[in-house]
Amino acid sequence: MPAAPPLCLGPLPTVAAARFPLPAGACDTHAHVVAADNNAYPFVPERTYTPPPAPEASYLAMLDATGMTRGVLVQISVHGTDNRYFLEVLRRHPQRLRGVGVVDPSASDRELDAMHAAGVRGLRINVLFGGGVGFDAMDTLAHRCAERGWHLQFLLDARRLPELLPRMRRLPVVGVIDHMGHAPVADGIQSPGFQAMQHLVRDHGWWVKLSGAYRISERFDDFDDVTPWARALIETAPDRMLWGSDWPHVHIPRMVDTGRLRNQLADWAPDADLRQRILVTNPQHLYGFAAI
């Protein structure tokens, strides 16, 4: 019998104070909710990990504690294509929240239209953790997204991007790359994967989430080796950068402080006007939030 997926640590109960003023309308564009009732909302058996509950109330408390006016929820892989809990949370907060869902390419138009009404503005391709939908569905899902003005979000290792570029350039929608490419920053910004990511952002209007520094760094827990990587992305296209906490920080050996992760923006984007774009203007444009 295969081993049970490992249990994850829970998020820290407090967050570090902000090092800079948070602007009105600031948005955390990448976090997850995990239902507390696994009988009503079961985990998929093919999952890579088993998280503790991260319910709606805890998520909203995190947004408040980190100074975020708005948030974008991403359907977590352990719930697979069962978007019910994620959608319930979105429906209860239509002004504050938007979402990125996970669906089988055969999902009905009725299902997708209901997701749009709930606040979903994109679909996710995930090839790193069990329970996701992979590259085989990319072209079909991209066309389903195009019909609704959505984007396609990618959880992948940027080292795979060079081989995928021909397909990605042809997609009828823009893409959003999770966690700054989820590739080791030790590879450097001249690496083929980073250069391919820059190409998609600079020449094809793609977006990058400045999130998950702890997933690509070798320096716990300030992750300062990520600074050159993040700055290079911001310099490539400041109007295509988004920030996300990646709360509740699943599948990592040591828990991180969500407030300290937010504070990295002070080093990555020292200028207040630039942080305004990353935290407010850019997500407002991509996810369709009302203007502040």
TrEMBL record:
Q: Does the keyword Hydrolase apply?
A: yes
Write down a Pfam family by its short name.
Amidohydro_2
Q: Which InterPro entries match?
A: Amidohydro-rel, Aro_Compnd_Degr_Hydrolases, Metal_Hydrolase
Task: Supply the EC number(s).
Answer: 3.1.1.57
Q: What keywords appear on the UniProt entry?
A: Hydrolase
Q: Identify the enzyme class.
A: hydrolase
Name the PANTHER family on file.
BARREL METAL-DEPENDENT HYDROLASE, PUTATIVE (AFU_ORTHOLOGUE AFUA_1G16240)-RELATED
Protein name in UniProt? 2-pyrone-4,6-dicarbaxylate hydrolase
Q: Which organism is it from?
A: Achromobacter deleyi
- Gene field: pmdD_1
